[in-house]
Each structure stands twice: as C-alpha cells, then as structure tokens.
Amino acid sequence: MEALVQTLTNLWKEWQLRGLVLLSLIFQTILIVVGNRRKYSNQLLVRFAVWVAYLAADTVATMALGIISNDLGDTSDNGELDANIELHVFWAPFLLLHLGGPDTITAYSLEDNELWLRHLLGLALQTGVALYTFFMAWRGSHLSILSTLMVFVGVSKYVERTWALRSASSEQIKGSMLARRDLPGPSNPNLLKEYDVKKAEGYNVIPNRVIDIQLPMEAFAFEDNSISKTNELLKAYGLLQIFKRIFVNLLLSSRDRDTSLTVFQNLSFEKAFEVVEMELAFMYDLLYTKASVVYSRWGLSLRCINLSLTCIVLVLFSSADDKHKYKKADLVITFLLLVVAVVLDIYAALVILFSDWTFVWLSLHKRTSILKVITSIQLFKNPRWSNSIAQYNLLSFALREKPMIYDPILSQVKPHHCHRILKLFKCLGIVEKQEKERYVTKEVISNSLKECIFKHLKERLKATVQETSDVGRQKFAVEIYGHGELKWSMEKGFDERILIWHIATDICYYLEESIEAIQAKREMSILMSRATKEQNRSI
C-alpha cells in the first residue's frame, strides 16, 4: 500500500504541471472556438462548456504559474538549474497568453466588465510572477532569448483583455456617450434658453421641427448592389451610437428618436429586423469580446506583431540543436503550446477578416474590390442570433406540470434520505436553478410575427409623434381586443399588469373557440405573452 501511495505521489509531482498546462491549453481552445457561439446558440452543452472554460481558465493558468515559481525556487537554493526546469519556465509566457484570453470572449456576463480593476490587479501580480521566474531562470541561453519574445506576446495579450473589460464597463460607455452630447440640437439646454430669451424680448419666434441625421452618409450613398448587406450594416453601425445609450440608462433625445424614425420608416420588416440584428451583434462584440481593442490600429498592429513573433519562436525552437536534453513529454507539450498558439492566432485573424467590423471599415473607405473578394469567399457565415424567443408559462409553473429531472431517481430512495437530499439541493441552489429553467422554452420567431410587430410599431409611431403616457398605451392595448373587463388592470403597477395580461392571454387562448381566420393572431398573442413574461422574469 505504501508503495502504491509513493508511486501515485511521484506521478502527481511529475505530471501536475504538465496536466495543468495542457488543461489550460484545452480551455483556451474551447473559448476561442466556441466562446462566440453563445451569441446565436441556445444549446445547453455550448453554454455549459463556455461557462466552465471561462471560470476555470484563469484559475488553472494561475496555479501552473505558481508551480513553476515554486519549482524554480527549490532549484535556485541548490545553485543549479535543471534543463527541464528551464523549459518549464519557458511555459510561463504562454500561461500569461492564456490569462489574456482569446478575442472571442472577455466577459461571460456584464458584471465581469465592472470588475476590470480586479483584472488589472491580476495583471500586475501574474505578470510579476512570470517576470520573476524569467529573470531567476535567465542564463543567456538560446531558450532564454526565445522566452523574452514570448513574454512580450503574453503581457500584451493580458493588457488587451484588461483594457477591453475597462472599455466595456458602464462608466466608460456612459462617459463616451456623454462626450457626444455637446452638439447643438433640439434637446440642448442652451438652445432652449435662447428660445425663451428671444420670446421674452418680443420676437415672434416660431419653432420649426428639423430632423438631424447623425449617421455615416455612406450608409445612404453606397450603391453597389453586388454587395447587398452593405447599406444595412452601415445603418446598424451608425445607429449603434444611439443604441449604446440604452445599456447605460441614458435618456434618448428627440434627435435620437427622429434619426431612428428616418432610418426605419422606409425599410421593409425583413430589412428592419436585419438592421436591429446587426446592431445587437455589434453591441455583443463590444460588451463581451475584445472588439473595442482588436478593431483599432494598435490592436491590429499587435496581432501582426504577436503572430510574427510566435512564428519566429516556433521556427527557432524547432531548429535548436540542444533539444535532446529535455524530456520527451516536456518537449511535446512545448511544441503543442507553440503550434496551437500559431493556429489559434491564424484562426482569430481569419475571424477578424471576415467579420462585420471589417466589412464596415472597407465600406466606409470605399475598398470595393477587397470587399467583393471577402464577400465571395464567405469563410465564416455564422448567424448573428438564434432567431428564437424565450417562452415562460406562469400557469404551468404554478401547477408544477413538469417533473424535476431527479424526481425518478428520488422516487427510488427512502423518504428520510430523499428529504435530506432535497434539503442539500436547496442549500446548493440546485432546486431554485432548475425551477427557474425547466419551464423556459425557445420558439422560433416567424416572419409573420416580425411583420406584425413592425407594422404595429410603424402605426403607433405615425399616430403619436409626441410622447404619450404609459397609461394611454396600456388602454389602447386592452380595448383594441374588446376585453373591457380588464380595464381595472390599468390602475395596477407595470409589473403587475404584465402578470395579469400574461395569465389572461393564456386562459383565453385555451378557453375561447379557435377560428381558422384568427388562428395566426392567436398563436402570435400567446407567443408574445409568454415572451413578455419571460423578459419580466429575467429582469
């Protein structure tokens, strides 16, 4: 028994660092390949894989750095540096590279962006540990020089991630949006003050409503019909500056409203939803990826420099004559780190090349020939969203119509054990989590529903240019379908009205007789009702 324990202990000491480095490499591969798919995929496996990889990647890389530092300290006491330890130190910059994360995901949730200062502290500490191991292991050897190049690559990646998180924080977005409000317009207080002064002096001041469009003019002037999505992309990119204000709780001015009206009033419902889809995709990239860093001059320059340096290190390390002194397993892992780093950088470069951001840049700079080439290749043609809407049935939840996943298992357990297991699940939050998710379904949004929504919005906007009261909108919604008995609900709070109408729609859907002529409207009503409830519940 003691021999077995000793064998396992030796095996753990020999392979713990190798295992952590390989695990960190696997997590990075998952994040860069799958990280962006949660934008358009509802698959539980994809979301779970990204969640695990995102949460565990930093911890694994940090642990590996700590082991390298500890092993280096033990060997430094003896005054000699083993060749394999020196190779392990060469892995430290790659772990910094992993801590920097891929371009496809920097934040899993919006709260991660608000914690950018924590990542800044992590940047300082982990970079300090990596530099400590680098200088302690410096021998002026071929491998030490190569480590210098990779340290630059790793640190730059980590700095990029921290800067991207800072740029996506609410305070930074709000500050950038407020800086744009100095332009004169109908909501400018100086203009309103001048109007009051002139009127008080006796001038006959007649206000005139002027729509001021703040969009790139290329969005309307680009007429190359061979590239069909150009106009929609540029309109979405122009409207992004308005759209961002909603995410940081800033009010939209009348100019913002007029700009949006002017853009959407002449679009079909297909094009309108496509523009909104593109806006959401742009906003997702700004909030959850390195888009704010990557699609800039210095960001693109760093990509070229880092890829070139990594390729140079791979070639020089492959041509070294002293590789025989390293253990075969360590040598294989080193080549894996180098090759995967190059492959992932090339993959990231291709993603950048075929992204909507590149498409917009080429369109604005009139690079039509390059644009046609990229469009004809269409290497990455992923959807921008899932084209589905979440559904939540409050009545089904109240009646407990669906069994829990573990109910069949617990039915085979003795009652007192079952009670203990349920108590444990409740303490861990498993019961609450499953109760929250098992009544949520996804339904594909049909074109008829999109057309109905867009038509209704256009009618309401034409009818009310001026702001209307919240109660007035709710009254219209109740009376238009002839359910005057629900007028009392208009006196309730907004959240309570949503709950009442959701339940009423669900009951009417099953009780009222189905007529073929209005069946489509019935299906749309129940779809929107459950979607409204899901949105209210998630908030």
Layout of helices and strands:
Blueprint: H1 2-34, H2 44-78, H3 83-100, H4 110-114, H5 116-136, H6 142-167, H7 170-178, H8 189-200, H9 218-221, H10 230-247, H11 254-264, H12 269-288, H13 291-294, H14 297-318, H15 328-353, H16 356-364, H17 368-377, E1 388-392, H18 394-399, H19 407-410, H20 415-428, H21 430-437, E2 440-444, H22 447-463, H23 470-479, H24 494-511, H25 519-538
Helix pairs in contact: 1-2, 1-15, 2-3, 2-5, 3-5, 3-6, 3-15, 5-6, 6-14, 7-10, 10-12, 10-16, 12-22, 14-15, 24-25
Overall description:
The protein has 539 residues and is an all-alpha fold. The protein is 71% helix and 2% strand. The chain contains 25 helices and 2 strands. The protein has helices at residues 2-34, 44-78, 83-100, 110-114, 116-136, 142-167, 170-178, 189-200, 218-221, 230-247, 254-264, 269-288, 291-294, 297-318, 328-353, 356-364, 368-377, 394-399, 407-410, 415-428, 430-437, 447-463, 470-479, 494-511, 519-538, and strands at residues 388-392, 440-444. Strands 1-2 form a two-stranded antiparallel ribbon. It starts with a helix and ends with a helix. The relative contact order is 0.07. Residues 182-191, 209-214, 216-226, 467-476 and 533-539 have low confidence and may be disordered.
